[in-house]
Design a protein that fits this description.
alpha+beta, FAD/NAD(P)-binding domain, D-Amino Acid Oxidase, Chain A, domain 2, Glutaredoxin, 3 domains, 10 helices, 28 strands, 27% strand, FAD-bd
Length: 455
């Protein structure tokens, strides 16, 4: 029997596969298609996700394939009206070295994650369509379209907004329409536009078309908000006609249509993120507007949260109740993400400090234990900032599947003699996912917390 079956080889499933592989957990990623997803859809990587990728050992490769967000160039009747910045600037400091979102097509992010998974000994089984599952006290049996089945101690549904696993579990989703208009996204190659701007072509009726150059490729991502009564034409000719309709370009200027999809923006949340031995992660748990680049990033952090907890239970002897904190922590974050992405979509919140995800944390979690009488800076539940202690960079010290203690020494824990001044006074126990789990004036009383998390 496998330890974990992960359904879906998107960014969520691959991230979880990497995290489990480096913890020595036997996991298999299952993918219905015969290859990785081919489109650029989730192209924005927020600073917090960059920190996660630093820990997982892929950030340098990701950054080499990425680019910055260009200013938006507004067009009207073939004339340039002017530029708009995409984001409010977030100032970098020692604790927050990554503050600028990066742009990289989703297919490339998945290629990098897939290569890292294979490097760590992980596996993806393609053409494995899940049709149902049953679970008992010992494990979960997953059935496939070809009549075969596999069994594992736990299953994670990372199979998207139309999750077959979620439907098989009977877990509902509650949500709302964000925008009544149909939207279309495509990857195209074209002539006639510079690659220094994100080109926007608004129409008088509220519809619009955008063409965004994708770093490291010859492609542009096309995004279109169509009139409410429009029926999207997903053919190559339909895309060419759309470009000719909204821009000063001719249909023939679109030299290739590489991928296309349509959707109607909605925000929805699964009623539960856990049902017995099955967990929901990524779009299987929360569906969102793409505005503000929140969804893919939140999904990756779902996996990052769940990975260390599954590892602790399966390999370190942590109590099974630790897994309940996945829903406790991640569902609350998903609620906040859905509200934010909807507000960005409707123009109520601008991209910037609110969207980079550096301020998200778990202050209300049962795993966040703050025992200090005075805590005016970093508190239990906060993201643990970067910094330097005795010449050691904290993000490098945190890197890997372990806990890190700052400001004291406890047998069996990786320890540094102090925390940077930016943390404030105290002793800080940093979780494997880079959040402060326990904080105290001294290390006295930490033993009870260590028992809860299996240390």
């Amino acid at each position: 029997m496998m330890d974990v079956l992960i359904v879906g080889a998107g960014p969520t499933g691959l991230t979880l596969g990497i995290d489990l592989a480096r913890r020595g957990v036997e996991a298999l990623v299952l993918e219905r298609a015969d290859a990785l997803f081919p489109g650029s859809r989730g192209k924005g990587l927020q600073p917090r996700t960059q920190e996660v990728f630093h820990d997982l050992g892929v950030l340098d490769t990701i950054r080499a394939a990425s680019g910055s967000y260009s200013n938006r160039m507004i067009w009207k009747n073939g004339e340039r009206l002017g530029e708009q910045t995409m984001f409010e600037e977030v100032e970098a400091d020692e604790g927050t070295p990554y503050t600028e979102p990066m742009m990289i097509p989703q297919w490339r992010t998945q290629e990098v994650l897939y290569a890292r998974l294979l490097e760590l000994g992980g596996r993806v089984a393609f053409e494995r369509e899940v049709t149902g599952l049953t679970q008992d006290a010992d494990g979960v049996t997953v059935a496939f379209a070809d009549g075969t089945a596999l069994r594992a101690r736990y299953v994670v549904a990372a199979d998207g907004g139309r999750s077959a696993v979620r439907r098989a579990l009977g877990v509902g989703m509650t949500g709302e329409t964000v925008d009544p208009a149909p939207f279309l996204v495509a990857d195209v190659r074209l002539d006639g536009l510079d690659r220094d701007h994100w080109h926007a072509f608004p129409a008088d009726d509220g519809s619009a078309l955008g063409l965004c150059p994708l770093a490291g490729t010859e492609d542009f991502q096309l995004q279109a908000r169509l009139p409410e009564d429009a029926v999207p034409d997903l053919s190559a000719d339909g895309i060419r006609k759309l470009v000719a309709q909204y821009t000063h370009l001719d249909a023939a200027d679109v030299t290739e249509v590489r991928w296309v999809s349509d959707f109607r923006p909605r925000a929805a949340l699964a009623d539960r993120f856990r049902a017995g031995r099955v967990f929901l992660a990524g779009d299987a748990a929360h569906v969102h507007s793409p505005a503000g680049a929140q969804g893919l990033n939140t999904s990756i952090q779902d996996a990052y949260n769940l990975g260390w907890k599954l590892g602790a239970v399966l390999r370190d002897g942590a109590p099974e109740a630790l897994l309940d904190t996945y829903e406790e922590e991640r569902r609350a974050n998903a609620v906040a993400m859905l509200e934010l992405s909807t507000s960005v979509h409707r123009g109520q919140v601008r991209r910037g400090r609110a969207t980079v995800q550096l301020d998200l944390g778990y202050e209300e979690s049962s795993l966040s234990v703050e025992t200090r009488t005075v805590a005016d800076r970093v508190r239990a539940g906060d993201r643990a900032p970067d910094g330097t202690v005795d010449g050691v960079r904290l993000f490098d010290a945190f890197r890997g599947p372990h806990w890190t203690l700052l400001g004291a020494t406890v047998p069996g824990l990786r320890s540094l003699p102090a925390a940077p001044e930016s943390y404030g006074p105290g002793v800080f126990l940093v979780r494997p996912d880079g959040y402060v789990g326990w904080a105290g004036d001294t290390a006295d009383g930490i033993e009870a917390y260590l028992t809860v998390v299996g240390l």
